[in-house]
């Protein structure tokens, strides 16, 4: 299990009063990922504005997530292509009789990979500061 996975598991067990204190620090660390992802998607007029940060302490996605609204940028997911280079196919202008192949332009996964160490370090430090304030050693 990686350090980030262990941190996610630990965040699920954080008491409510610590969650309130940790939320801004986690959001600030995730802001780096969001900024980098927006920069990598700057070729699009809609994708950068459709991204936001979600901080949660429950469920499988405990921690911070960068979310792209499919309603505001329906083309975001095909272009992301799960972070892998390659191509995807789609109907030309909605005409299902004519299909075109287009190159993927991953932006979110590469942003997360390039900023993960720094973001994880900042989140670890915030967790440690919060726990120390409550008497944890």
Chart the SSEs and their pairings.
Blueprint: H1 3-12, H2 16-40, E1 51-56, E2 63-68, H3 76-80, E3 87-92, E4 95-103, H4 108-133
Antiparallel strand pairs: 1-2, 3-4
Helix pairs in contact: 2-4
Describe the structure in your own words:
It is built from 4 helices and 4 strands. It is α+β, with helices and mostly antiparallel strands and 137 residues long. The chain has a domain of 92 residues. Strand 3 and strand 4 form a beta hairpin. The protein starts with a helix and ends with a helix. The model has no long low-confidence stretch (mean pLDDT 87).
Major β-sheet profile? 2 strands, antiparallel
Task: Using the CA coordinates, give the radius of gyration.
Answer: 18 Å
How would you state the average pLDDT, rounded?
87
- Classification by helices and strands: alpha+beta
Q: End-to-end distance, in Å? A: 24 Å
H/E series, N to C? HHEEHEEH
Tertiary shape: elongated
Task: Count every helix, treating DSSP H or I runs of 4 or more residues as helices.
Answer: 4
Q: Beta-strand level of the residues, as a percent range?
A: 15-25%
Helix content: 40-55%
> How are the strands of the largest sheet arranged?
1-2
Contiguous uncertain segments of 5+ residues = none
> What is the β-strand count?
4
């Amino acid at each position: 299990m990686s350090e980030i996975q262990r941190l996610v598991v630990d965040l699920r067990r954080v008491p409510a009063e610590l969650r309130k204190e940790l939320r801004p620090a986690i959001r600030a660390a995730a802001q780096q990922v969001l900024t980098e992802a927006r920069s990598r998607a700057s070729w699009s007029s809609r994708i950068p504005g459709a991204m936001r940060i979600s901080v949660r302490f429950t469920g499988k996605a405990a921690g911070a997530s960068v979310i792209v609204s499919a309603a505001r940028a329906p083309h975001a997911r095909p272009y992301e292509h799960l972070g892998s280079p390659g191509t995807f196919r789609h109907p030309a202008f909605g005409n299902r009789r004519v299909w075109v192949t287009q190159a993927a332009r991953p932006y979110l996964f590469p942003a997360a990979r390039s900023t993960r160490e720094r973001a994880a370090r900042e989140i670890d430090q915030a967790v440690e500061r919060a726990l120390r304030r409550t008497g944890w050693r």
